[in-house]
Amino acid sequence: MSSLNLKQTAIKAFDAAGTKLLSPPMNGFGYFINHGPRNKRKVALTFDDGPSRPATEHLIDAMRKLDVKGSFFCLGVNVRYHPDLLLQMYQEGHVIGNHSGWHSRKTGLMLGSDIRHILDGEEAIAEVLGVRPCFYRPPWGWLTPWEGKRLTDAGYKVIGWDVYTLDWVIPEVDGITLARDAYRDTKPGSIYCFHDAKPWEKQWVKTETTRAIQALVPMLREQGYEFVTLAELLDVPAYAPKREV
């Protein structure tokens, strides 16, 4: 086996182990909120890695037509690409959460008190909205106990999921398949993990997530489900005043 193949094999093994040990819905050392109340047919759509054009624009256009609000975990780097789009999302009633500054797994794995990766995303969002987000989702969903403590000490609710989708795969998975898989796994209180963009990409075309939402929403409404934001599902504030410098 070549050195390149060995490296690729090692990376795959590392990724698989990290996901198994650190990701929702099974892990997170008690810090993750993976779903809302199970006694009400309310569910929350969440999206990671944006915003980006035209992918995020097309998604929120479709959600507007469906009269659905979502919760978007945004990256500092992408927010700085499209501050006007972030403001539009906020003004249309979508909840904005923090997905870190630059989507690094390494920073969340490191010991110590350095939270620059957290604050970078927060500050990019707060600069546009005038408030700071109270919800955080770590990149890749990887959460160590020390990162969980850093986040809670910083005032965050750490959001996981109980319905995970493969809409991040390239080439894209068909939207109808994504919708059917999400429908199959839905329970009262479910939190879905979709992706509206790709980290670091200013321009990104992504059609199948939008198709999935267009299919999933009417399917679940027929079953009596209501789509709400994370703030509504969990009955907690989405935002807090900006930190004093």
Give a summary of the structure in a few sentences.
The protein has 245 residues and is of the alpha/beta class.
Can you walk through the features of this model?
It contains ten helices and 13 strands. Helix 2 packs parallel to helix 9 and helix 8 (175-185) packs across helix 9. Strand 9 (163-164), helix 8 (175-185) and strand 10 (191-195) form a beta-alpha-beta unit. 44% of the residues are buried. The chain is globular and about 45 Å long. With 245 residues, it is α/β, with parallel strands linked by helices. The strands form four sheets. Strands 2, 4, 5, 9, 10 and 12 form a six-stranded parallel sheet that branches. It has a single domain (3-241), classed as TIM Barrel (Alpha-Beta Barrel), CATH 3.20.20.
Overall body shape: globular
Proportion of strand residues = 15-25%
CATH superfamily: Glycoside hydrolase/deacetylase
**CATH level-two architecture:** Alpha-Beta Barrel
Q: What is the count of DSSP helices, taking H or I runs of 4+ residues?
A: 10
Main sheet record: 6 strands, parallel
The level 1 CATH classification is: Alpha Beta
What is the helix/strand order? HEEEHEHHEHHEEHEEHEEHEHE
Helix content: 40-55%
What gyration radius follows from the Cα positions, in whole Å? 17 Å
